[in-house]
Known about the structure:
The protein is α/β, with parallel strands linked by helices. It contains 24 helices and 15 strands.
Amino acid sequence: MLSYILTESTAVYKPQFEYMAELGLLQFQEGGIPLEVEAGERFEIALTDGTAKVTYKEKADIFCGAFMLANKEEGYSAAFDSRFELCGAMLDNSRNSVTNLKQLKEYVAYSVALGLNCLYLYNEDTFEIEGEPYFGYMRDRYTAAEIKEIHDFAAEFGVETVPCIQTLAHLNQALRWYCYAPITDMGDTMLADEEKTYELIEKMIAAWRAVCSTEYINIGMDEAHFLGRGKHLDKHGAEAKFDIMCRHLKRVADICEKYGFKPMMWSDMFFRIAFGGYYSDESIYPELLAKVPENVTLAYWDYYSTDRDKYIKQLDKHFMFDNEIAFAGGAWKWSGFTPSIDHSWKVSEIVLEEVKKRGVGKVMATCWGDDGAECLSACIMPVLALYGANRLADGKEAAELAKENTLKACGYTVEEFFKLCRPSVTPAENLTPYANPTKYLFYNDPLKGMFDKHTTADFGKFYADCAEELGALSTKGGRFGYLFDVQAKLCRVLELKATFGVELKAAYDKGDKAELERLANEVMSEIYARTEAFYEAFRSGWMKESRPGGFDTQDIRIGGLSRRYLAVMHTIADYLAGNIDRIEELEQERLYFDCRGENSDKCLTIGYNNYKAIATANIL
């Protein structure tokens, strides 16, 4: 890596450059080459005559250019035209993991180095609202001062902070409190056409305007499945959901306009209401299109297909609206402990090219944390690098730039990052990017074995191999080594646990008491010890990235699992001692979790990424 020295044109950015140097993204020392910057009509970088020069069109280009030049040789030059107005990661701070300020600042620096210029913050209720003590209560919410701090920090790097909130559904954690019962329609959905609802929404929007200078705000409104089905139905009678939706949207959009925001919302509800599904092959008919307020940007989100034609068709339908269209792809980290960023890379390469052809100006890589945010968030770096590279280049050139930047920024290649996904690609088939065997096998109850029919004898060796490979990668160290260590320790648990239930029931059915004793006293105790090691590594990774409050869920879940391990040992000991004449749980026939037929040639199941459904068939 080249070492730089600051010049008159770059000295003003010394704090930002020093921070990037702390992260290993840049290097400054005496005897380095001069780093110069100047404003221009185009983003250009050059290393000539022993001087590194960045010509920037927007402020973020300065830091991206300095990063990219740091590994170039004399005579190198390049020019870039920005394909997107806003391009960044959307960090989910609402599913227990609330990114701590230190990590947020690191994201800003890495984002700008990788070519991004925006930080989307998704906060359903995890932000402070004056006069609303129960909004985000006990959820590690950000104070106004903290949001202002990260906003101002990002602005110094030329990174725009855009709030992403919810103004209709996905508010289950806020609406759980009795004080919000009057504005609850049903479930996680706010009551439309209720003045108190709009009073709270105005407080939300005003809270972000007080600390953010951006023009834009994402107001959510996706997946509002209960709209008009609960209290609204009781108060107003049956009414077309599309009409309720558009009327509510207009009220919220008017509030946004009052505070100088341009609203953006997820587009799926219009399709769901019209056809019962987002990805229908049908198009919305003109009478419905005309009801959608034109001052709202519609964000088309899609994380799934590797079929280019599906994206083309869905974009065609979106462009029937008289609205600006944005796009949200995914950095798959929301299916349990293990990411599917290899899938994200494949689909992003396809869809980003298509949205560029349509002139879409705003894109984001969503980093959801469904069901407890169990997957550590820094695994998304290659996907962010691909988004940043696609802001500056196209096709293979963008992919190669993303690979180069990932290695320079993180110390691991894209292919090595993809190894984090391997534990989900078992010796059986990998059905989808959201098949999550590492989660459902980890939480599979050792006595009840609801997932015993979703494993094979090969799984133990497979997870042993994964643990060895990921453990070796973790020893490379650096700022991202912990990601590999956590996955390795998870695989060490699954090396024994993935098939434990099958082996236990087989020994019980055969009446093999010696094997039962071995499984209980040797194997189960070793699983217990490995689970403790995984817990410690996982907790350490969480505390590096997130605030501590949300980890209570993991304490409860993993702590409960460990207690079940003790129950296995106690139960088998009682059986072997003759204190009980049968083990009720092992008397039960094992069925497929997903109710498939007995002649299925498949093994994996999606598992629903729902701890409550995975852990037990009983009420939790």
